[in-house]
UniProtKB/TrEMBL annotation:
Catalysed reactions, as listed in the record: an N(4)-{beta-D-GlcNAc-(1->2)-alpha-D-Man-(1->3)-[alpha-D-Man-(1->6)]-beta-D-Man-(1->4)-beta-D-GlcNAc-(1->4)-beta-D-GlcNAc}-L-asparaginyl-[protein] + UDP-N-acetyl-alpha-D-glucosamine = N(4)-{beta-D-GlcNAc-(1->2)-alpha-D-Man-(1->3)-[beta-D-GlcNAc-(1->2)-alpha-D-Man-(1->6)]-beta-D-Man-(1->4)-beta-D-GlcNAc-(1->4)-beta-D-GlcNAc}-L-asparaginyl-[protein] + UDP + H(+)
Compositionally biased region (Polar residues): 44-54
InterPro entries with a match to the protein in the record: GlcNAc_II, Nucleotide-diphossugar_trans
Region (Disordered): 44-63
UniProt EC number: 2.4.1.143
Protein name: Alpha-1,6-mannosyl-glycoprotein 2-beta-N-acetylglucosaminyltransferase
Disulfide bonds: C189-C203, C276-C279, C327-C350, C332-C431, C371-C378
Binding site for Mn(2+): D254, H367
Residues that hold substrate according to the record: Q116, V117, H118, N119, R120, D147, Q222, I223, K224, H225, H226
One Pfam family matching this protein: MGAT2
Length: 451
């Protein structure tokens, strides 16, 4: 952020004083937690002609540090929802660009990596370590999108020195709205209650179970909400804002990448432009059950109708994203809490032609998340250790000079049934609101959509 020095120091003093007040009142739940600080009132509006924000000087307490501390202290209090969202929107608009001076600013960025993070710092560290081993990483922009405040995650990201970094924060986080929609409203129906019983007890959303008769689970709903908001915010609030014209690679905190990930991406782009002009999407990941043939397949490329096994390491550009966004109604109304299966529905039902994916048979983005939303009885390092051993074994095979399409599937996979979890009319309405996050109103917390 670029502020006049006196304005900056005055604003910082006000924020720090407010933090002190929050600390003193941390045991008292109050409606005024966020109202005490309105970032819009503390600071003058930024100069929108500036292409990027300046990182805080070394050794000086940064406004970003104060803001994240504010977030950390306020997330578990009862807040005024509108002020909370306004504050988070302000943070997003006034993001810092870390390491900007070191790497020449955003005009030098060759590719953008969008990384959705939650609170699994152990996995995120492995992803960051793998990115640090990619020779071309200095010319990238890493955008981390958060739906929770976690000190360990924050520390890992702020420790990155090998690339330019921006952080954004999903404004409708369950960590803030923990006792009202989009969080767990205590008056909502239990996820597994039968609709007939729900009608008798008149829980709040009894009319809106999913396809299978179950009611919303906020922790699952948030993943799709966050993903959709993040994508739209990045394209509108960062890519358009800074006039960036490059590809975007989608990652998550429990992914790792190979050292030759960008080398392979360039090879796939060349193959697409010469031998697979109908390939509309590139996937650097691929669901495989074992890595037995990894080295054998290191230079092989596949071509197939885009489907569930191609949902890791997706590469797209602004043109393709706008096609997806034009089908937002289908995405937001399809009864599936999974963002990837919802996107596939768009490809099958909304696009003129189903997307064809181009992918390396030896994936360059690998999933190591044994423990997560669906799995709790697990060892968090099992897949990570397997992938580490694989990288050591394949080290001399990376960077193939030539790559060729050796696998072509003509049979179109059958479209899947919805997985459910997305029957609540409020989830669908919030999703639509997040389709244009810079140009939409704040969610109306007083609206009754359940009648």
């Amino acid at each position: 952020m670029i502020f006049h020095k006196k304005t900056k120091l005055a604003g910082l003093v006000l924020i720090l004083l407010t933090l002190y007040c929050f600390h003193r009142l941390s045991n008292v739940r109050t409606q005024k937690v966020i109202e005490v600080v309105s970032f819009n009132q503390l600071h003058e509006s930024p100069n929108t002609s500036q292409n990027e924000s300046k990182p805080q000087p070394e050794g000086e307490t940064g406004l970003e540090d104060a803001k994240t501390e504010l977030l950390g202290l306020s997330v578990n209090a009862t807040v005024n929802p509108i002020e909370a969202i306004n504050s988070l929107n302000y943070l997003n608009l006034h993001h810092d660009v870390y390491n900007s001076d070191t790497y020449g600013g955003l005009k030098e960025v060759s590719i953008i990596l969008i990384i959705q993070v939650h609170n699994r710092a152990n996995y995120l560290k492995l992803l960051i370590d793998s990115l640090a081993n990619v020779p071309e990483i200095n010319s990238t922009l890493l955008i981390f999108s958060h739906d929770i405040y976690d000190k360990d995650v924050e520390a890992l990201i702020k420790g990155i020195k090998f690339a330019q970094v921006i952080q954004i924060r999903y404004p409708y986080s369950l960590q803030i709205f923990h006792d009202q929609f989009p969080g767990a409203d205590p008056l909502d129906c239990d996820a597994s209650i039968a609709k007939e019983k729900a009608e008798v007890v008149r829980c709040k959303n009894w009319k809106y179970p999913d396809t299978y008769g179950h009611y919303r689970i906020p922790t699952l709903s948030q993943i799709k909400h966050h993903w959709w908001w993040k994508m739209n915010y990045v394209f509108d609030g960062i890519i358009d804002r800074y006039d960036l014209n490059t590809n975007v690679l989608l990652l998550e905190e429990d992914h790792v990448v190979t050292p030759d990930v960008f080398h392979v991406l360039n090879k796939l782009i060349a193959l697409r432009d010469t031998e697979c002009r109908d390939c509309g999407i590139i996937s650097l990941g691929l669901f495989v059950r074992t890595y037995t043939n990894y080295i054998r397949d290191i230079s092989k490329v596949g071509r197939q109708t885009w489907f569930g096994k191609h949902n890791t390491g997706i590469v797209l550009n602004k043109e393709l994203w706008n096609e997806f966004r034009n089908c937002s109604q289908l995405f937001c109304e399809f009864d599936d809490y999974n963002w990837d299966w919802s996107l596939i529905q768009i490809s099958y039902k909304c696009f003129e032609n189903k997307l064809i994916a181009l992918y390396p048979k030896a994936p360059r983005v690998l999933h190591i998340g044994d423990c997560g939303v669906h799995t709790h009885k697990c060892s968090s390092q099992t897949s990570a250790l397997k992938v580490s051993a694989l990288f050591q074994k394949a080290n001399h095979s990376f960077y193939p000079e030539n790559m060729a399409i050796t696998e072509k599937f003509s049979k179109v996979p059958k479209i899947s049934k919805p997985n459910g979890g997305w029957g609540d009319v409020r989830d669908r309405a919030l999703c639509k609101l997040n389709t244009h996050p810079l140009n939409s109103d704040t969610w109306d917390f007083n609206a009754n959509l359940l009648t």
